Amino acid sequence: MVLTSNSSAKPAKQHKRKPSGGNNEAASFAEDWKPGLATRVTAVKIISAVLDKKTSLDGMLDAENGNPAYRALSLADRALVRAIVNTSLRHLPRIEAVLGMLLDGPLPQGARSLHHVLVVGVTQMLYLDVPDHSAVDLAVEQAHRDPRNRRFVKLVNAVLRRLGREKDDILQAVSAIPVLPEWFYAKLVKVYGTDAAARMAEAQLIPSVIDVTVKSDPDHWAAKLNGTVMPNGSVRLGSFEGSVSGLDGFTNGEWWVQDFSASMPVRLMGNLAGKRVADLCAAPGGKTAQLVLAGAEVTALDQSGNRLKRLRENLDRLQLQAETIEINMLKFQPDELFDAVLLDAPCSSTGTLRKHPDVCWTKDEKDISKLATLQEQMLRHAITMVKPGGIVVFSNCSLDPSEGEDMVAKVLKSEPSLQRVPASKSDFPDMEIAINGNGDLRTTPDMFGGVDGFYATVLRVN
């Protein structure tokens, strides 16, 4: 990732505006700041919010409603902030180890801001194409301008300059450290084994790919989009310039962005032609679109009005129709039972770390336990919506079995009317690795060249 052109870019003109209604963050950027300093200050603010306040990264990087300092930057500087923040979080355990090697002892209590300044400096020097002298100079300047950190200016300078001199040896020394929080990596080792856990951790560093689900003829669209047809019929896009929405076929609704793994729960449901199907947590609508395309009569639920609006907009672009209802699915009582329901439940999202590297730094085991309890409640309610002989498909993008295999086993044990419908590996050629011993779908980030970690199971209501 080449970022040198942004590292010395001048702060956006907005930084020089005098304070005005509500955007004090943007107004705080002084006129005499060095070019590039505003981006580093913003990166530190955002990293601090993720690590110290457990704030979701997506919200802060939203172009319209995100962090004010971030929104005040030019588009090029926003891209640099995203690169610094995402890269810092992806490599954080190694960066922490680097700082441990370079510092004589721990930083004083209350020096978290200084710590984050050093993290941003190390990230640029080790993992981004930012010149060392620029990263050092701006880190020193940032420390100098912060009254809390001013007395540590010489330390910042010495630590980062030493890193520059010893970069190759230091990179080698930390290369075997897993790039995941200790608690989560220990969980992966316990569940999947040491080798698989190591592969999953390293997979988080693979640049994210873009998969799309096409309405028809994957070979045609793979050729047109410079992509590759995946074993499940998805198309993985090749390199392209501009935005996804500018590619052939997007505007007229020939395809939609959907990760390889996320497309699989609907593919497990079999023939849906003419069947009544409910999508219980439907937004943004990728799975709803699949259900409609499969010939189902679909009712799509979501408790968020804004998310449901986005779903409707997506369906309009795809020229597909479904009934949409704004409601918490736990409160939904259908007038007529469905032939099938899809419950893609809210979860910890630990399977999506390649796209959302903040997840394991903003959630912990207590959060996962609470989510597993909610998922069980949702699954038990979903069962009541299906007519005898119908199916429930439960899925989510967590790697933790407590939100998948273990929770489903608990429900199966206590619901005698429910039985698992195992998927046959023969029905998914070249995908056998993704079907576990119970016949459930279980993908991990190291599969198929990089995918979301996902779990899905098919359950029949007798």
Fold and architecture overview:
The chain is an alpha/beta fold and 462 residues long. Helix content is 43%, strand content 12%. Helix 6 packs across helix 8. The radius of gyration is 24 Å and the shape is elongated. The N terminus is likely disordered.
What layout of secondary structure does this protein have?
Blueprint: H1 4-7, H2 24-27, H3 37-53, H4 57-60, H5 68-71, H6 75-90, H7 92-102, H8 112-127, H9 132-145, H10 153-165, H11 167-174, H12 182-192, H13 194-203, E1 211-214, H14 218-224, E2 228-229, E3 235-236, E4 255-257, H15 264-267, E5 276-279, H16 286-293, E6 297-302, H17 305-318, E7 323-326, E8 338-344, H18 359-362, H19 365-383, E9 386-396, H20 405-414, E10 418-420, E11 441-443, E12 454-461
Parallel strand pairs: 5-6, 5-8, 6-7, 8-9
Antiparallel strand pairs: 1-3, 1-4, 2-3, 9-12, 10-12, 11-12
Helix pairs in contact: 3-6, 3-8, 6-8, 7-8, 8-9, 8-10, 9-10, 12-13
Structure summary:
β5 (about 275-280), α16 and β6 form a beta-alpha-beta unit. α6 (about 75-90) crosses α8 and α8 packs parallel to α10 (about 155-165). The chain has helices spanning about 5, 25, 35-55, 55-60, 70, 75-90, 90-100, 110-125, 130-145, 155-165, 165-175, 180-190, 195-205, 220-225, 265, 285-295, 305-320, 360, 365-385, 405-415; strands at about 210-215, 230, 235, 255, 275-280, 295-300, 325, 340-345, 385-395, 420, 440-445, 455-460.
Keyphrases for this structure?
462 residues, alpha/beta, four-stranded antiparallel beta sheet, 20 helices, disordered N terminus
